[in-house]
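Handout, page 2. Input:
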Amino acid sequence: MKHIFGHKNPDTDSICSAIAYADFLNKQNIDAKAFALGSLNKETQFVLEYFGIEAPEQIDKLPAGTEVILVDHNEEKQSIDKIKDLDIVEIIDHHNLKIETNKPISVLFKPVGSTCTIIAEEKYFKNNVELTKPIAGILLSALISDTLFFHSPTTTDIDKVVAEKLSKIAEVENLEEFSLKLFNAKSDLGDISVEKLIKLDYKTYDFKDGTYSIGVMETTNAKFGLDKKEDILIKLKELKESEDLSGIFFTIIDILNEESYTFTSGDTEDALFTKLFSAVEKNNALYVDKLISRKKQIVPVFEKM
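Output:
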């Protein structure tokens, strides 16, 4: 059986792309199952419950030699532990290519707003494979989530066309209204711990001058994160030390106003972020207008350091 999973600290695109691709392969009489490398966030839970789909089993390790398919990621640090001991047979992703394999494999990368866009367009639509309402619904949800309802600079015309097709199958008549439901679910964090808040959407990268982690909180209620500044700063410093990082950043993205507020692990990181993004101080954080995409706007700048 092929095990399909997205990255650690999974977001909606990571989970839904795994579920949808397992569904597609099963319809081709290929034994496949979706898994999660971590607990689901509130938005993903909402999506699966809304469309009546069972959450995937969580795993943190697999026996050596297990056949796996990676979706929505391809970096070793973001994947399951000891990924090199597993048999990677396929990758579907919309990020830049990082991983190395010891044999030729099937690779499908496209510069679009979500991995679910790729699966919907390249797998289901182009092969005329039936899409059920629930699967179309989770594909649509992940597409909307990853593109911030088409406000993210990662959005392409393909995403918009695919979203229109999916919305008809999923019977979602008002995309804007539905997107607000998604974002409100994403923003409902209740009494979440500070570490879980930082790691809701958290990725680690090897840049030229060291290893950095970047956590992102996409929300309609930026004040929730801003009010936790002191606790967040303490936890960022702890994580920097415990994970042996060169630096760590936590960016609160205000979805509705298309702006961001960033906290860092220290003065050196403050200065670096300010220099790279011309950030200014606002609401006791490093503020940058229109900086709303880690993939398209933040990571590429760090890669050029």
